[in-house]
Specification:
The structure holds two protein chains of two kinds. Chain A is built from 13 helices and 20 strands. Chain A is of the alpha/beta class. Chain A folds into two domains: 247 residues, FAD/NAD(P)-binding domain, CATH 3.50.50; 123 residues, Rossmann fold, CATH 3.40.50. In chain A, helix 1 packs parallel to helix 10, helix 1 runs parallel beside helix 13 and helix 4 crosses helix 13. Chain A is globular and about 70 Å long. The relative contact order of chain A is 0.19. By secondary structure, chain B is of the alpha+beta class. Helices cover 38% and strands 21% of the residues of chain B. Chain B contains 19 helices and 19 strands. In chain B, strands 3, 4, 5, 10, 11, 12, 13, 14 and 15 form a nine-stranded mixed sheet that branches. In chain B, strands 1, 2, 6, 7, 8, 9, 16 and 17 form an eight-stranded mixed sheet that branches. In chain B, helix 1 runs parallel beside helix 5. The longest helix of chain B has 19 residues. Classes of the chains: A alpha/beta, B alpha+beta. Chains A and B meet through helix 6, strand 15 and helix 12 of A and helix 16, helix 17, helix 18 and helix 19 of B.
Chain lengths: 424, 545
């Protein structure tokens, strides 16, 4: 049996924040995960817009909400800086970013490579969208057209002009079916970045523009360097546009979180949880299996951050279930694991679909509870998308809720373990 | 307001209307084909794609079965590229071995007509033999009979007929709703229309107006002021993410067919007297299909269902008949005889496989009425693409595309695959796969837009299978929207409108079956289009309308 103070299940944004927070306070921390989930598929932008509102539904002390979010933001920015993937932003300023669908998204924390794209702060800009021939995920002409349309309709501030061009990307073998990751891998090479800058210069008179809007392909690991070279070569502000999965920035963020966990000595085990035992109302041991190797962990506190359907934290075949601890699943605040799917779905695609608010209900210290409000296991906490009550695709605070709840779970864990937790 | 003179106006762009338009145009009639939504967007597009005789009808209407077998052989000759074989296992389910002897005479009889449709005769298999062929079969089966059926890409069969009609001079208009039928006393002389995408209204005059609107025929007849009744029944199918079995398999009242990269399970047959525009699958029907199918394939419930489709059969009115016993005969109605309204014909009933002879019959009547003697050539002249065989391997090499991609283009376009791929020469980026599940290249999408009347993403889907795979448009919707507005020279607004419409259209088919693994895909799809794209933002929706 392997003793650990804090066992985190799931390695996305919620799990990584929980693990790093716990580890920083000196607790022995182990993180078990099966693989990459929704965080690695995300745009990499962290939205905090409805986090405070969501927290109010869980935490009764409203005065601590704003400072808590600030703490988490500072912590996250610090982690990312340590991991050499700098993020910028705060909860008090909405950033309005263009995405690869030609619409805009409001968000808060973004990697430095996206920062210059905030439409709120580019008064009088002249944007040049740069597409890559044979890379269908980023349609520069359409994006340029669409942004002008949105601005004509008053959906975004009318403070810029747009244009577009397509370059032949240096050193690609194929002329079609290019993927973000393929291009990003090439851009890890500084020579390629220089050649790409040259391609852009040859195609357009850059004096006419103030900004280059690029697909998110500025390298898998060394995006800051690629950005600096491009800005230096073109003398323009450059930024990456938000993209759909598979998204290089989401992957970068996940990898940076992984590096941050390693810096803080979090033990990461790539395995799935097979079973657990309980005693005296708590989780006593957790058995995890990685190929042929089996670990039995003896955790002080378990933080469940296993995600929703993408991560597999919540599943539904004939009923809704949480597969690891068989915890009761709620939809909004009703415990309704047997609810007919028909009652959880609406006719219009764009309206709320209640199934996506399914998850665990927790008390104000993030313990999953039963339908009558009783804590199920005294040392089990839950964070992130496995929680009920919010649909991140509509509410926008996906990664924000995950990070804040992950952080708070760690604080509760520290309290329970008799450490220097700050949770009130 | 466009106004023109035609000899024949055909209302309805399903297989029946498309077949009629082709026959009329080939016989030299100045023809206009009108479709309120898109070709094969109604009943035809929700059928199983079987080009069979139908063992099911042997007992009650063997003449329909025989005719279907004969017509199947003809269609196979006209468009060989659209045809695929469906070897079929009909297991003798637990306790039904005794039925074998009762069943064999009908099957043997069916075999005799197999020569018309190029099918092999049946084989009786032991349970072990059947399970060797198809390991997912239930251990409880007591043997099996095989039959051999042809299948067809029904979307392409319709569009091939439409293309042929146009090449013989017909004018083609989809998304054009008939809003009124013009009558001067008892003489029908034309129609009023509205383009549902642009709002543009039109008026067209013709000697004859043909109502081939399938389940909508009563609504169209009402516009002409004549009563018309059908006995419509609803059928649903559920669609799985992959080819679960290598052959088709019958269950207890349902069948599972491998189809393209998916499997289809159907069918149901229940009365449906509501508006055909409102037809939807429901969870009870899905459950009925699954419980019927699991008697043959017990693991069917573990398979991943991606969506359903539902359609309405325009069956002939037969008051008092049980819904499973309704005739598959077709009938051409001359409203001059029925209602003393001249210049107006209606066609109803039938099956997809006999569309050609239905069209021939109706066109023969038109010839008699218009005093023309042109003979029907739809039996002989190949459909577009069926002229000769294309060589996918050579094309793949020539255009530098993967063979699996080109093989699909050839299966949809036959001899015309080269025309589709030609664009890759000058625009190599159009080799990119926009839809990765199927796969569909940008070149084929652009071809559908420029040559095949695709005006919306859903039209593109029907031409190419865009968005029909397991990801259900997650990857391709926004890329294809960009291609559509670019090729059509439309404003960005149309792109957003198309994204919203396509997402909604696909959702309609997923909603009744969403669960299990597909929920993961759905979470991702919502994260993309709502979480990132913000398409649920009412302001965006408003400006896109």
């Amino acid at each position: 049996m392997m003793k650990t103070d804090v066992l985190v299940i799931g390695g996305g944004a919620a799990g990584a924040m929980a693990a790093t927070t716990a580890a920083r306070s000196g607790f022995d921390t182990t993180l078990v995960r099966q693989g990459y989930g929704a965080t690695a598929l995300s745009t990499g932008a962290v939205d905090l817009s409805e986090v405070a509102e969501w927290l109010r539904g869980i935490v009764t002390n409203a005065e601590m909400i704003h400072p808590t979010v600030d703490t988490v933001v500072a912590d996250f920015l610090g982690l990312m800086a340590e991991a050499n993937y700098a993020y910028v932003g705060s909860q008090d300023k909405d950033l309005i970013l263009i995405n690869a669908m030609g619409t805009v998204k409001s968000t808060h924390l973004v990697p430095e490579t996206m920062a210059a794209g905030d439409l709120e702060s580019i008064e009088g800009a002249r944007l040049l969208f740069v597409g890559v021939q044979g890379y269908p995920d980023f349609d520069a002409t359409y994006l340029s057209k669409s942004l002008r349309f949105l601005s004509d309709c008053g959906l975004v501030r009318t403070c810029f002009e747009t244009a577009s061009l397509e370059i032949e990307f240096p050193r690609v073998v194929h002329t079609a079916n290019l993927s973000s990751f393929e291009l990003a891998q090439l851009m890890d090479d500084e020579e390629v970045v220089l050649e790409m800058a040259k391609c852009v210069q040859e195609k357009a008179d850059l004096n006419q523009y103030t900004h280059l809007a690029l697909p998110p392909i500025l390298g898998r690991d060394n995006s800051a360097r690629a950005l600096a070279i491009l800005q230096d070569q073109t003398a323009l502000c450059c930024f990456e546009v938000l993209s759909l999965p598979p998204s290089v920035p989401g992957f970068r963020m996940q990898r940076a979180l992984d590096r941050a966990m390693k810096h803080r000595d979090v033990r990461i085990i790539h395995a799935s949880v097979e079973s657990f035992s309980e005693s005296k109302g708590g989780i006593r041991s957790v058995r995890v299996v990685e190929k042929e190797t089996e670990y039995v962990l003896d955790p002080g506190v378990v933080i469940l951050a296993s995600g929703k359907f993408i991560g597999g934290g919540i599943q539904r075949t004939d009923r809704l279930r949480e597969p690891i601890f068989d915890l009761p699943v709620f939809v909004d605040s009703d415990c309704a694991p047997d609810a007919e799917m028909g009652t959880l779905l609406a006719e219009r695609f764009v309206s709320e679909q209640r199934i996506f608010k399914a998850g665990l209900q927790v008390d104000e210290r993030f313990h999953p509870v039963s339908p009558d409000g009783q804590v199920i296991y005294s040392n089990l906490l839950a964070a992130g998308a496995v929680l009920a009550g919010y649909d991140y695709s509509l509410g926008q605070g996906g990664l924000g809720v995950s990070m804040v709840s992950g952080h708070l779970c760690a604080q509760v864990a520290l309290d329970q373990l008799g450490g220097k937790g700050v949770f009130v | 307001m466009p106004s023109a003179e035609y000899e024949v106006i055909v209302i309805g762009g399903g297989i029946t209307g498309a077949g009629i338009a082709r026959d009329c145009a080939m016989r030299g009639f100045k023809t206009l084909l009108l479709e309120k939504k898109d070709f094969s967007a109604g009943t035809t597009g929700t059928c199983m794609g079987m080009l069979h005789g139908g063992v099911r009808y042997m007992a009650t209407e063997p003449e329909v079965t025989k005719l279907s077998c004969i017509e199947s052989g003809i269609v196979q000759r006209l468009a060989p590229h659209l045809i695929f074989r469906i070897p079929w296992i009909m297991p003798l389910l637990a306790g039904s071995r005794a039925n074998l002897q009762a069943f064999l005479p009908a099957i043997t009889h069916y075999d005799e007509w197999g020569k018309f449709k190029n099918s092999k005769p049946h084989v009786v298999l032991s349970a072990e033999e059947a399970r060797t062929l198809e390991p997912s079969l239930s251990p409880d089966i007591e043997g099996a009979i095989t039959i051999d059926e042809p299948g067809v890409d029904v979307f392409r069969l319709v569009i091939a007929n439409v293309i042929s009609a146009a090449e013989h001079g017909a004018e083609i208009r989809n998304h054009t709703r008939v809003t009124g039928i013009l009558r001067d006393g008892n003489q029908v002389y034309g129609v009023q229309t509205q383009d549902t995408l642009t709002g543009e209204v039109g008026e067209y005059h013709a000697a004859y107006v043909v109502n081939a609107a399938g389940p909508w025929t009563p609504q169209v007849a009402a516009l002409a002021g004549v009563p018309f009744k059908l006995c419509p029944t609803k059928g649903i199918h559920i669609i799985f993410d992959r080819r679960i079995t290598s052959t088709a398999v019958s269950g207890a009242g349902a069948s599972l067919l491998p189809h393209e990269n998916t499997s289809i399970c159907g069918l149901t047959d229940t009365f449906f007297f509501l508006d055909p525009d409102e037809v939807r699958s429901n969870r009870e029907e899905v459950e009925h299909l699954l419980s019927s199918m699991e008697k043959a394939i017990p693991s069917i419930r573990q398979a991943r269902i991606i969506r359903t489709m539902a359609g309405v059969r325009p069956l002939l009115d037969q008051p008092g008949t049980d819904e499973r016993q309704l005739t598959r005969h077709y009938k051409v109605y001359d409203h001059e005889e029925l209602d003393e309204v001249r210049g107006f014909l209606t066609i109803a009933g039938g099956k997809m496989v006999i569309y050609r002879i239905m069209a021939e019959d109706l066109t023969n009547l038109l010839c008699r009425k218009l005093g023309r003697e042109d003979s029907c050539r739809t039996k002989e002249d190949p459909l577009p693409g069926g002229e000769e065989q294309a060589n996918p391997t050579a094309l793949a090499e020539e255009f530098g595309l993967p063979l699996y991609t080109v093989a699909r283009v050839v299966s949809r376009h036959g001899a015309r695959a080269r025309r589709v791929l030609e664009r890759c020469r000058e625009e190599p980026q159009s080799k990119s796969h926009v839809c990765v599940c199927e796969p569909v290249t940008e070149a084929e999408i652009r071809y559908a837009i420029t040559h095949e009347w695709a005006r919306t993403l859903d039209d593109v889907r029907r031409r190419t299978r865009l968005g029909m795979g397991p990801c259900q448009g997650c990857h391709c919707t926004k890329i294809a929207a960009g291609v559509l507005v670019d090729e059509r020279g439309e404003p960005a607004k149309r792109g957003h409108q198309e994204v919203l419409d396509f997402l909604q259209e696909r959702w309609k088919g997923r909603e009744p079956v969403l669960t299990g693994a597909q929920l993961r895909q759905e979470e991702l799809l919502r994260a993309c289009y709502l979480g990132v794209g913000g398409y649920h933002n009412p302001a965006l929706e408003r400006v896109s309308q």
